[in-house]
């Protein structure tokens, strides 16, 4: 088992670049890969989906933090918006992870498959009005939106970027600032969701090296390299255009959905 741990840092590098580049944290790709890999580490099929989601959320905390810091240094995080969304994100992340713990792994898998396909379609065909303003969206509506984003994110193992970024751009925020703000929101989602998966899991949910459903070798292995690679993604986000990259990522999402269907 120890000779297989090298794969987690590789996954983390990919997730880190995607976190900084698109504000999505690579969570869906992580979940798709972990569902295949965790059974090799002694985690039974019945718990593999829960563990993949939980470990993805735990790693997203540091991944998103690194990405958010890199974007903050470039002035691309709208902290007032983060402050308004944070209460809803915390509540939604906790409730979503609690619901996920109660659901069967097969149900969760189909939920992730459906979300992958919807996110891929949105990235490929979705249209949003051009953003470019400096105003930070605020108000109770953002808190309510945060609750929904947090809950869905916890259920499918992501940092919420595929929902937060389109929402902010629709509200008139420049795309690069939407990505930076989404990264900061991902930290909040990750903390609440990982805590829910860790504390609400049944006793002995995983055989060893775990807290609840969070498999520590995977979460830590991914986080170590994702923290280092997120600034690279942030730099790329400021240097190149996004439409073509989003279409490439949409292809990845379809591949993830297909891999889960075959699992």
UniProtKB/TrEMBL annotation:
Subcellular location field: Cell membrane; Membrane
Q: Which domain of life is it from?
A: Bacteria
- How is the protein disposed in the membrane? Multi-pass membrane protein
Grouped into one coarse class, the protein's main location is membrane
Q: Give the stretches traversing the membrane.
A: 6-39, 51-70, 82-103, 148-169, 176-198, 210-232, 244-262
Output the Pfam families linked to this UniProt entry: TauE
Alphabetically ordered keywords of this record: Cell membrane, Membrane, Transmembrane, Transmembrane helix
Stated family: Belongs to the 4-toluene sulfonate uptake permease (TSUP) (TC 2.A.102) family.
Q: Which protein, by its recorded name, is this? A: Probable membrane transporter protein
Organism of this sequence:
Luteimonas soli
């Amino acid at each position: 088992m120890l000779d297989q741990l090298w794969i987690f840092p590789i996954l983390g590098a990919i997730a880190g670049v995607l976190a900084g580049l698109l504000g999505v944290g690579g969570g869906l790709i992580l979940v798709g890969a972990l569902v295949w890999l965790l059974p090799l580490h002694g985690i039974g099929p019945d718990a593999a989906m829960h563990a993949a989601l939980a470990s993805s959320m735990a790693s997203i905390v540091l991944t998103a933090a690194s990405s958010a810091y890199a974007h903050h240094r470039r002035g691309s995080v709208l902290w007032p918006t983060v402050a308004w969304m944070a209460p809803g994100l915390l509540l939604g992340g906790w409730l979503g992870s609690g619901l996920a713990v109660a659901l069967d792994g097969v149900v969760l898998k189909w939920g992730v498959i459906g979300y992958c396909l919807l996110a891929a379609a949105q990235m490929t065909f979705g249209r949003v009005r051009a953003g470019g303003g400096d105003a930070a969206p605020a108000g109770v509506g953002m808190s309510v939106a945060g609750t929904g984003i947090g809950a869905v994110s916890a259920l499918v193992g992501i940092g919420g970027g595929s929902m937060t970024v389109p929402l902010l751009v629709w509200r008139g925020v420049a795309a690069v600032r939407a990505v930076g703000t989404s990264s900061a929101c991902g930290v909040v989602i990750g903390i609440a969701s990982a805590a829910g998966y860790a504390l609400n899991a049944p006793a002995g949910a995983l055989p060893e090296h775990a807290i609840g459903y969070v498999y520590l070798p995977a979460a830590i292995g991914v986080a170590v390299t994702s923290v280092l690679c997120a600034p690279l993604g942030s730099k790329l986000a400021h240097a190149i255009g996004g439409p073509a990259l989003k279409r490439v990522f949409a292809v990845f999402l379809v591949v993830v959905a297909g891999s889960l269907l075959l699992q």
